[in-house]
Amino acid sequence: MRALPLLLLGFAVASAPALAQMKLSPKAATSGGPETRYFTAIDGLMDGNADVVLKETRQGKTVTAAVLDVCYPAEKGSDRKDRFVANLTVSGTSLSGTTQSIADKQPVTIKLNRKQTGDSFEFRGQITVGQTVTEVASTDNSDLSEKEFTDNQATDDGITPAPKDFTDVSPEAMGVRVKLDAAADFLKSLKGEAVEVSTSSLAVTCDELRSGEQTINLTVDPERAAALLAKAKAAPGVTAAGWTSGVVEMDRTIRFAAADWASGEKINKDKIATAISTVLSRTLSAKPASATWNANTGKLKLILKRPSKTYPALGLTTNLEITALVSPEKPGATDRLILWVSSPSTSTTDDSAGPKLNLSEDTGSDEEGGEPMDDNGSIDALLKEFKGQRWDADKSVWH
Fold first, then answer.
1. Which of 8, 240, 287, 330 is least buried, going by the fewest C-beta atoms within 10 A?
2. How far apart are CA 129 and CA 149, in angstroms?
3. CA-to-CA distance for 35 and 145, rounded, in angstroms?
4. What is the pLDDT of residues 63-81, one digit of tens each?
């Protein structure tokens, strides 16, 4: 058996530290009827990775019913979660019950003793999942009222189904909220599509297990985003779909008229790539080496090269990589485009003739270590080239 120290944390993994610091005094029990109180999580369970909610129904100070909800990694070090929910039998200070985990069908046994001292609560006993027995020794715990608990569960997946423009959400980033039992079929329907699925969004969180819905994050060429949105909304089990946050940062974005940069209804990406390369070659004192549009995401990857100043006698090359994204300024028909351009990141290579010097990147270096560098006024130069406008964050307007 393992003896693990147990404290109270937050309901969700992401919010656990905040709730762990909350020491809320229990409200005075109402004499007129039952009261619901919550303990959120038991630290130490499943190697400290359990996300736990203990819900108690009380009449005065007497517990009349309790439900224990535990979400935890299905295997050690795994992102896949399992969960069990047990209705506990209350006998004086004893809480006990049996159930089965939802995903792996593991038998679960709970035997806890509960002790209250003033506003503080202590839990001791055992929780057994499969063959794993955890000794519970949780002290100095505080509870939450139903309102406090509910307020702490409010989450926002950032999905905006119909944004007025792309100043608060990113034109290439989409989120799709889908019921858990339909998520696999939805993901399979994306096979062969020109879209990228965020692997981090594939792991179902404890919040998602409890809500019964999962949010899948996608990256798509902005020109195809509307079609993907329509397809997603029509898919079985989808409860919400729209744009969300992504790569676009407004301080590195310009807005300009589409007329000179479009061919019919399509953005003239070759013309835009040439213009960006020309401007950046001047501001960064480098020669364009390649310009590639990603067919899935619509992002432009630019590589420019210039002689490295680190050790001139070696004739090394500094490679500057820039990512850009062009999009209509808002969903639907518009006569304006927006262009976002990243800060350059750098690497050093030996491109000289003959045998090469093998180099490793030093992330501590100011310029040669792959970290973003100063772009020498590149955004202002692009603004002039495209005859565009910058975003004023204070006034929330283009100017």
1. 287
2. 26
3. 9
4. 999 999 999 999 888 899 9
Helices marked H in 3-157 — which ranges?
16-20, 146-153
216: left (phi over 0), alpha (psi -120 to 50) or beta: beta
The DSSP code for 250 is: G
Element of type H or E holding 53? strand 51-59
Query: Distance between CA atoms of 210 and 149, rounded to whole angstroms?
Result: 14
Q: How confident is the model at residue 32 (pLDDT cuts 50, 70, 90)?
A: low
pLDDT of residue 31: 53
Burial classification of residue 199, based on how many CB atoms lie within 10 Å of its CB (0-12 exposed, 13-18 middle, 19 or more buried): exposed
Separation of alpha carbons 289 and 295, rounded Å: 19
Read off the pTM.
0.83
Residues 39, 17: Cα–Cα separation, whole Å: 14
| Residues contacting 170, CB < 8 A, separation 6+ | 243, 244, 245, 246, 247, 248
Q: What is the pLDDT of residue 157?
A: 85
Cα(322)–Cα(339) distance, integer angstroms:
13
User: Is residue 178 scored above 80 in pLDDT?
Assistant: yes
The pLDDT of residue 364 is above 60: no
pLDDT for res 16:
36
* DSSP letter assigned to residue 294: -
Of 182, 155, 188, 162, whose CA–CA distance to 241 is shortest?
Answer: 162
The pairing of strands 397-398 and 51-59 is: unpaired
How many CB atoms within 10 Å of residue 334? 13
**Which region among 38-42, 130-134, 229-233 has the lowest average model confidence (pLDDT)?**
38-42
Please give the C-alpha separations between residue 17 and each of 44, 61, 72, 150, in angstroms, as whole numbers: 14, 28, 17, 17
Average pLDDT over residues 303-321: 96
3-state secondary structure of 96: strand
Mark 128-144 as b/e (b = at least 16 C-beta within 10 Å).
bbeeeebbbebeebbbb
373 pLDDT band, cuts 50/70/90, is: low
State both tokens at 291. 């310009």
**CA-based radius of gyration for the chain:** 28
Q: What is the mean pLDDT of residues 254-263?
A: 94
The CA-to-CA distance between both ends of the chain, in Å, stands at 67
Q: What sign does the dihedral 262-379-280-341 (CA atoms) show? A: negative
Q: Return the DSSP state at 208.
A: H
